[in-house]
Amino acid sequence: MVPLFNRSNPASTWGPWTRAMTATVNQGRSLSSRAAMSYYLQFRQAEGAKGLFLPIPAEPLEEKVVAENLAKAIIPDGSKEAAYSRAVQQLRDQRAEAVALAETESMVAAAGAESIIASTESDDQATTFARVASANACAFCLMLESRGPVYQTIDAASFLPHLLCGCSPEPVMDTGTYRNDKAAESLDLYARSGGDINAMRRDIYAASDNTALNAARREEYAAAKAAEQA
């Protein structure tokens, strides 16, 4: 749905596009929230929590909020883009589309986190939060995961996902049975990096394959330099 937005003339498509995107985002958020509520009940049962509990769903987002999040990614800076060549503008359009899609995914994923957060805070059987990092988590998320179930408040844990983050909060029940082996792996990685978050980032990036990403960056840089010299 992102290509339906005309970046060269935002005013012509912005209103209808953001309304359509809001509906799409909230449909995804509803599914994300329901999945999180189901997970919460299953997790609660597996941990041996007592009593009945009704998980809390995430709220839909207002169009204003969706529009503000997408505007950061997709509306061009006319004062700068006028100086770019057509090739560079195409690259920037592609990047804007990718970032807008990532923003959309983040708003959808946040609903699952919001549901688990609200449910955990309302459940008298839950005591703390833990962070569960995604497979390709950044160093900061892995560092937070490495601390284990120590977060007493959601503000301390910063659980709402950042862009391209697949991490999630996990409730910790008062049954004393919580275990997360992956947190131990993250702690080991953090320790091997000397407790230095920047060193941890370098270790993670060195172990990943960024060939395609680096090639795209070099291509955009070359196009930008060519535009300056034109």
Summarize the structure.
With 230 residues, the chain is mainly alpha-helical. It is 62% helix and 6% strand.
Q: Which sheet architecture does the biggest sheet show?
A: 2 strands, antiparallel
Q: How many separate helices?
A: 9
Strand content: 5-15%
Overall residue-averaged pLDDT value = 78
Structural category: mainly alpha
Q: Unreliable segments (pLDDT under 50, ≥5 consecutive)?
A: 78-84
Helix share of residues?
A: 55-70%
Give the N-to-C terminal Cα separation: 34 Å
Q: How many β strands by DSSP?
A: 2
How many domains?
Answer: 1
**H-E order:** HHHHEHHEHHH
Rg over alpha carbons: 21 Å
* Shape label: flat
User: Order of strands across the biggest sheet?
Assistant: 1-2
Question: What tags apply to this protein structure?
Answer:
mainly alpha, 230 residues
Task: Give a structural overview.
The protein has 230 residues and is mainly alpha-helical. It has one domain. The chain has nine helices and two strands; from the N terminus they run H-H-H-H-E-H-H-E-H-H-H. It has helices at residues 10-46, 63-74, 78-81, 86-122, 139-146, 154-157, 181-192, 197-206, 211-229; strands spanning 126-132, 168-173. The longest helix is centred in the N-terminal third of the chain and has 37 residues, at 10-46. Mean pLDDT is 78; it is low at 78-84.
